[in-house]
Specification:
The protein has 25 helices and eight strands. The chain is an alpha/beta fold. It folds into four domains: 6-174, P-loop containing nucleotide triphosphate hydrolases (Rossmann fold, 3-Layer(aba) Sandwich), CATH 3.40.50.300; 180-240, Orthogonal Bundle (Helicase, Ruva Protein, domain 3), CATH 1.10.8; 246-344, Zinc Finger, Delta Prime, domain 3, CATH 1.20.272.10; 385-511, no CATH class. A five-stranded parallel β-sheet has the order 2-3-4-1-5, covered by helices on one side. Strand 3 (121-126), helix 6 and strand 4 form a beta-alpha-beta unit. Helix 13 (261-273) runs antiparallel to helix 16. The longest helix is centred in the C-terminal third of the chain and has 24 residues, at 513-536.
C-alpha cells in the first residue's frame, strides 16, 4: 500500500521532534551523554503520548555511531540497520499476545547471544502489564541482572498492574498527556506540510476530542480531511465526531434556563434520535457553562447551579448501569423544578417576627402562605445525619441476614421499571445508583460511591421507605452510606465479631418517638404561625391549609 497514515508518517525520528515530553527526553539524553544508561526502563502513561516512539528513538540513539546533539543521525550504518525491517537486535514484543511463561523463557534463552550488528540489543516489551504472573516471575532475575549488551524498555498504560518487584528493577519514567499548546503546534506544522486548510476552532475541537493523545488527534485530523473537500471548520469536526453543533448546545441550555420542561425533553429526544452521544452532549454543556462563568465572567448564580447539577449528572451517567437518557432527563427535571419553585418562594423568615413585617396588601396577594407554613413545619425536625446513620447501621448488624439481603437484591433491579415515574423517578434513579450491602428483617444499608448521594437519600428516608414498600413491597428502614463509611463499618463489624462482642439494639427515634414529637411540635408551630398571620393581616382574606 502506497498510503501511509499521518500519525505514522509524522512519527518523530529523534528526541527533538517529540512533542510534549521534554522532561523524559532530557533525562534520556543526559543519561546517554553521561554514559549513565540504565539496564531497564519502564515507560508509563496514557496511550498515544509517545512511549513506543521514544523507546525506538532511544534504541537507535544508544547504537548510533555519529550522534548529533544527542540525537540519532539516522544515516550511519547502525541507524540504517535499526530502521530496517531486517534488524534483529531491536526486538519488539507485544505482551498482550505473548504473555505466557514460554515466551519469556524463549527470550531468556536468547538473551546471552551478543548483538548481530549493533552495540546494544534492545528489548521493547509493549503493554507489559498484560504478562501473566508466571511470566513476570520468569522475567525477574533476567531483568535484575541482564548481560551488559542488553537494555530492556517496558511500556504500559496501567502501571498499577505491574508487580512492585518489576518496578523496583527499572527506572520508571512517567509520560504525561500532551498539552493543548504542544498538540496545536504539531497539528499546525503537519497541516502546513500536507497543505490542509483548517480553522483554529477546528484544531481546538480536535485537541479537545483527543484528550491529550497525539495519535488520536492525528488520526482524527486525517479522517476529517477525508470528509472535507475544502477548509476544515469547527462543524466539520463535530459532525465527524458525532457531536451536536454549538448552536444546538446553546439552544438546549437556553431551554433549560427558560424552565420549558416539554421543549427541553423534546430537544434531548431530537439529539438522542440523531445518534449523538449523551456523554458528549453533557461534556459540551459543562464546557459551555464553564466558559461563561470562568472565562466570560458571567455573574449568575443559576449558571453555577446548573454547572454543579451537570457535573452531578455526568458522575451518575458514567458510574451507573441505568439508561443514561433517563438519568439525564431526570437530572434536568430536578434542576428546572427546583429553580422554578425557588423563584416563586418568598423569604420565610418574614413570619418569624412581627416587628420585621413591612408588607403591603398587594404584596400579600402574591405570596404563597401554604408554602411558608409547610416549609417552617418541616424545619422543626433537627435531622442529625450522623446520629441517624450510626443508629441504623448498628441496628442492621444486630440481626444481619444473608437471606434478607438476597431477597432485597433480587427485587432491587425491578426499580428500573419505575425510573421514569413522574412523581418518584428522581428518587428511584438515586436508589438505582446505590446497592444494598447488608440487611436484617427490619433494616437495610445502601452503599453509594459518594457521601453526597448517600446524604441526599437519608434526608428523604421516609419517602424512600414508602417508595420501596409501594413499588417493591419491601418494608424496611433504610440508611445510605458512602463507600468509605461502608468499608469502615464492615471492618468494625468484623473486629467485633472476632472479639465475641455483640451489637445491641439502639432505640431508633427516627421510627417512633421523633415522628410523634415532630407531629406535635408541628401543630404547635403551625398554630403560632396562624396567630402571627391573623395578627399581621387581619384585614386580608387568608386561607390556611
Amino acid at each position: 500500500m502506497s498510503h501511509l497514515a499521518i500519525y505514522r508518517k509524522y512519527r518523530p525520528s529523534n528526541f527533538d521532534e517529540v512533542s510534549g515530553q521534554k522532561v523524559i527526553t532530557t533525562i534520556l539524553k543526559n543519561a546517554i551523554n553521561n554514559n549513565n544508561i540504565s539496564h531497564a526502563y519502564l515507560f508509563t502513561g496514557p496511550r498515544g503520548t509517545g512511549k513506543t516512539s521514544i523507546a525506538k528513538i532511544f534504541a537507535r540513539t544508544v547504537n548510533c555511531e555519529n550522534l548529533i546533539n544527542t540525537n540519532p543521525c539516522n544515516q550511519c550504518a547502525s541507524c540504517l540497520n535499526s530502521l530496517s525491517k531486517e534488524c534483529v537486535d531491536i526486538i519488539e514484543i507485544d505482551a498482550a499476545s505473548n504473555n505466557g511463561v514460554d515466551e519469556i523463557r524463549e527470550l531468556k534463552s536468547k538473551i546471552n547471544i551478543v548483538p548481530s550488528f549493533l552495540k546494544y540489543k534492545i528489548y521493547i516489551i509493549d503493554e507489559v502489564h498484560m504478562l501473566s504472573i508466571g511470566a513476570f516471575n520468569a522475567l525477574l532475575k533476567t531483568l535484575e541482572e541482564p548481560p551488559s549488551h542488553v537494555i530492556f524498555i517496558l511500556a504500559t498504560t496501567e502501571i498499577q498492574k505491574v508487580p512492585t518487584t518489576i518496578l523496583s528493577r527499572c527506572q520508571v519514567l512517567e509520560f504525561k498527556k500532551i498539552s493543548p499548546i504542544d498538540m496545536k503546534n504539531r497539528i499546525l506544522e503537519i497541516c502546513s506540510n500536507e497543505k490542509i486548510e483548517i480553522s483554529n476552532e477546528a484544531i481546538d475541537e480536535i485537541i479537545s476530542s483527543s484528550e491529550g493523545c497525539m495519535r488520536d488527534a492525528l488520526s482524527l485530523l486525517e479522517k476529517i480531511n477525508s470528509y472535507c473537500n475544502d477548509k476544515i471548520e469547527l462543524e466539520d469536526v463535530r459532525t465527524v465526531c458525532d457531536k451536536p453543533s454549538k448552536k444546538q448546545i446553546i439552544k438546549l441550555i437556553d431551554l433549560i434556563f427558560s424552565k420549558d420542561i416539554n421543549a427541553s425533553i423534546e430537544e434531548i429526544n431530537n439529539l438522542y434520535q440523531s445518534n449523538y452521544d449523551l456523554i458528549y452532549i453533557l461534556e459540551d454543556i459543562i464546557k459551555e457553562l464553564d466558559n461563561r462563568i470562568f472565562v466570560n465572567k458571567e455573574k449568575n448564580s443559576e449558571l453555577q447551579e446548573l454547572l454543579s447539577e451537570m457535573i452531578t449528572i455526568y458522575d451518575k451517567m458514567t458510574n451507573s448501569s441505568v439508561n443514561k437518557k433517563i438519568i439525564f432527563e431526570i437530572g434536568l427535571l430536578d434542576f428546572m423544578k427546583n429553580n422554578e419553585s425557588d423563584s416563586k418562594n418568598i423569604s420565610r423568615e418574614i413570619f418569624l417576627k412581627k416587628e420585621d413585617a413591612n408588607i403591603t396588601e398587594d404584596n400579600v396577594k402574591e405570596k404563597s402562605f401554604t408554602a411558608v407554613i409547610e416549609d417552617k413545619a418541616e424545619t422543626i425536625s433537627s435531622f442529625s445525619n450522623e446520629e441517624f446513620k450510626n443508629i441504623r447501621i448498628n441496628n442492621t448488624f444486630v440481626d444481619a441476614s444473608k437471606d434478607e439481603l438476597n431477597n432485597i437484591k433480587n427485587k432491587w433491579i425491578e426499580l428500573k421499571n419505575y425510573a421514569f415515574d413522574k412523581e418518584n423517578g428522581a428518587i428511584i434513579c438515586n436508589l438505582l445508583d446505590g446497592a444494598p450491602v447488608v440487611a436484617s428483617n427490619q433494616y437495610v444499608v445502601i452503599n453509594y460511591l459518594y457521601s453526597s448521594l448517600a446524604d441526599k437519600l437519608n434526608e428523604e428516608y421516609k419517602k424512600v421507605e414508602k417508595i420501596l414498600n409501594d413499588y417493591l413491597q419491601l418494608n424496611y428502614h433504610i440508611v445510605a452510606i458512602s463507600d468509605l463509611e461502608w468499608k469502615k463499618s464492615r471492618e468494625e463489624y468484623i473486629k467485633k465479631i472476632n472479639s465475641n462482642e455483640k451489637y445491641n439494639i439502639i432505640d431508633d427515634k427516627y421510627i417512633t418517638s421523633t415522628e410523634n414529637n415532630i407531629e406535635k411540635e408541628t401543630i404547635i408551630h403551625q398554630e403560632n404561625i396562624d396567630t402571627k398571620i391573623y395578627e399581621l393581616f387581619d384585614s386580608v382574606d387568608i386561607e390556611i391549609k
